[in-house]
């Protein structure tokens, strides 16, 4: 037995070593490819849209100061308003991982990622003159300028995005909401929040058909397509921050459906939004159910956002799901290329999926995977998953102290994207949380494939919360 264990250990070490070597080679090549694609897209944008499109590889513009606390940008003799106050800029909650991603090219050239900071004065009669420092990246500047001016300068959709009706619904002011369950005599509401690169179909095609008749007569089920995904709006000038996502959920669900109290069920990235929503509405949440919450406490001295990015996207070729996450997180232009090939042609891929799989659930889940834009995916991944890394502990402490409801966490034991340790990390902050590890299930099959059993488990959670 000891010999067998030694052989297994040796094979594991060798596999890890080969994975490290291959990963270094592959990701070095990807660093170079992304650098080249940066200029390819700049040229393409210029010839197709008659303007250079800034990206997060672009150097930062130099902020200067003015009276009234306005942040201005000086560029070739022109000064333009970026945001009215520093505090307003900070409220956008922009993750530094958008423009600070170490790579082989940046280490060599020292020019792939450049940041610029400048001190300026905020004039507030309550605070007096206060010195503050902000870092402004040129792409953020461009997007904020477009919002302040109230004009959309880029075509809708962009040439690399899909032009179908679903993908051009950018002017709608509300999210797509799929309501199910009780219509009359609604006793309680349940809000479902999907994960990254997904849609409401993750819930509606799996759980909705499997709830019992009594549950469907009592609970109103409300599943949303998050901003930028599925059939929801995909604005090209949005930074997809926590604030924007939460405001759209409130505007699309809580207000029009007159929801006063509700249960929350959230998966993966959706768990972060669920926690933020619970913190904002602590007296309204009746139960909180989280599936595979991405919580990696940063070691002392580590920058939380960068640590989170490395944990979620470890720049490894194996396992495959980690490789995919690394492509999506580290490479702005490779990610845009993938969206150009897949999302722009999603109608073709949906047709092929229906033809090949002949499985309703898989087909709808694949459609949800295809329906997003590069802008939506890129900003949501960085601003929500990475950008909240320094805030999530505060969310968890608020939930522990302010919420009185039950908190249940489900996690697939075989989850290779978000390891089981994340759920136990949450429990370490909220001791009363109940963690349920499901054997032989991963990040997706925690629901898909066990939808009937999970529907019964949810009904039990809601019943206990109402008892």
Automatic annotation (TrEMBL):
GO terms for molecular function: hydrolase activity. Residues 190-297 form the AB hydrolase-1 domain. It comes from the Eukaryota. Gene3D superfamilies: alpha/beta hydrolase. InterPro entries: AB_hydrolase_1, AB_hydrolase_fold. This is AB hydrolase-1 domain-containing protein.
């Amino acid at each position: 037995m000891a010999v067998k264990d030694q052989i297994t250990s040796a094979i594991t070490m060798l596999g890890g070593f080969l994975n490290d070597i291959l990963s270094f080679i592959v990701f070095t090549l990807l660093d170079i490819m992304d650098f080249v694609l940066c200029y390819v897209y700049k040229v393409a944008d210029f010839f197709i849209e008659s303007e250079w499109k800034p990206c997060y590889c672009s150097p930062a513009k130099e902020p200067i100061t003015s009276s009234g606390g306005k942040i201005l940008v000086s560029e070739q003799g022109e000064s333009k308003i970026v945001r009215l106050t520093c505090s307003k800029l900070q409220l956008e909650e922009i993750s530094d991982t958008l423009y600070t991603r170490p790579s082989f090219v940046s280490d060599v050239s020292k020019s792939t990622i450049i940041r610029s900071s400048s001190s300026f004065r905020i004039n507030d009669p309550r605070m007096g003159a206060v010195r503050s420092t902000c870092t402004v990246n040129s792409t953020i500047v461009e997007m904020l300028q477009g919002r302040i001016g109230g004009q959309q300068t880029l075509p809708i959709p962009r040439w690399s995005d899909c032009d179908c009706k679903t993908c051009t619904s950018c002017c709608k002011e509300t999210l797509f909401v799929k309501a199910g369950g009780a219509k009359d005599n609604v006793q309680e509401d349940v809000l479902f929040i999907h994960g990254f690169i997904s849609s409401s179909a993750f819930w509606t095609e799996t759980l909705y058909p499997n709830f019992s008749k009594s549950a469907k007569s009592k609970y109103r089920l409300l599943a949303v397509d998050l901003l930028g995904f599925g059939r929801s709006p995909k604005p090209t000038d949005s930074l997809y921050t926590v604030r924007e996502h939460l405001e759209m959920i409130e505007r699309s669900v809580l207000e029009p459906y007159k929801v006063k109290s509700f249960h929350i069920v959230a998966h993966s990235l959706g768990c972060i939004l669920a926690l933020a929503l619970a913190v904002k509405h602590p007296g309204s949440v009746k139960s909180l159910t989280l599936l595979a919450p991405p919580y990696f406490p940063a070691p002392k001295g580590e920058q939380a956002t960068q640590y989170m990015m490395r944990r979620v996207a470890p720049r490894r070729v194996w396992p495959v799901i980690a490789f995919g996450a690394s492509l999506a997180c580290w490479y702005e232009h490779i990610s845009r290329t993938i969206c150009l090939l897949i999302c722009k042609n999603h109608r073709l891929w949906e047709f092929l999926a229906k033809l090949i799989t002949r499985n309703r659930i898989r087909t709808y889940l694949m459609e949800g995977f295809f329906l997003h834009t590069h802008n939506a995916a890129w900003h949501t991944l960085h601003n929500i998953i990475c950008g909240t890394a320094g805030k999530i502990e505060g969310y968890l402490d608020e939930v522990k102290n302010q919420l009185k409801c039950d908190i249940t966490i489900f996690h697939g034991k075989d989850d290779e994207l978000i390891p089981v340790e994340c759920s136990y990390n949450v429990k370490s902050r909220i001791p009363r949380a109940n963690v349920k590890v499901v054997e032989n299930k991963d990040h997706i099959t925690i629901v898909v494939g066990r939808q009937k059993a999970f529907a019964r488990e949810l009904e039990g959670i809601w019943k206990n919360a109402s008892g």
